[in-house]
Amino acid sequence: MANKRLVGLVSILFVMIVWGSSFAVTKVIVNVVPPLTLAFYRCSIGALTLLSIFFIRKGRSAGRHLADIPWGVIILLGFTGVTVFYIFFNLSVRLTSASVGALLQGFIPICIAVLAAVFLKEKLSIKQVFGIILSVTGVIFIGFLSSNQSSTGNSITGNVLMIIAVIAWGVYTIISKKVADRDPLLITSLCTLAGSVLLLPAAVYENWGKGWPSVSFSGWLAIVFLGALASGICYLLYNKSLQLLSAAEVGNFINLDPLVGFILALAFLHESVTMVQIIGGVLIVVGIVLSTTPSPVEKSSADPVSLPPL
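and the corresponding structure tokens:
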């Protein structure tokens, strides 16, 4: 049992490091590969990786799982959680700093809680409402009160684009409730594939008349890192950690995702940070902890931890 717990802890820690580093990697490669094209490359590689893993794991029974797929829901999930999310995510990272983008994306659990309260009629406790207020205040601090176009690269336009990406992921999460009883690996594979197909026209338009960008070997390594590892292998490790650890423990690690991204961006991209941004980041993290930690009465019936952006 101790060994299984150690495997779970190592797995989720590795996932957080990879997902956190995706901000810095995207910041570097998006200056070489146009943002819409990068989104198409990343998601296509991610879809192929996930589908390959699905067919390897299911073998001859894979066809049975593909029967009666709700394609309308799949396409809608692919559009919101892949196409729209990655278009605005990549455009945002090009305009704002990776550290600020990581902190703003930490707002996702709050966005999901608010959308669930509005559309799924899920009740919010006083503690959750207070946490939401703190996180919204933190987003305002980071996204709008920091100096525009300063040395941090903190562009208000870029921050707004990241907030739109966060909202798109929140919508994706709410819609995904409709297929919660399906094989999560299959659903994620098909959603990523659908989103990639929908990204293709945007990528073609972006390169129309210019030709597709020439990508170096190191550039392709970065794209494969984002697609195959961050969007593929880490998905399996995330699910493995859910099997070996409690949902609450995994949730606590996921709260570290924006902080890991923030720290890695500062360390490897040498981005500067203002005190206003630090205060905003602290408010977001405290707000997430307050709004996503179930009370003792709720713990027994708590839902599995929602998957963050891949």
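(Above: one complete record from the training split.) Confidence is low (pLDDT under 50) at residues 297-302.
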